[in-house]
Amino acid sequence: MDEDARQIRIAAALLTDARGRLLLVRKSGTAWFMQPGGKIERGEEPFAALARELREELGLAVAPDAARHCGRFSAPAANEPGFTVEAELYALPLNGEARSAAEIAEIAWLEPDATATLPLAPLTRDHALPLWRSMLTETSR
Question: CATH for 4-139, among 3.90.79.10, 3.30.428.70, 3.40.50.1820, 3.30.70.100?
Answer without folding.
Answer: 3.90.79.10
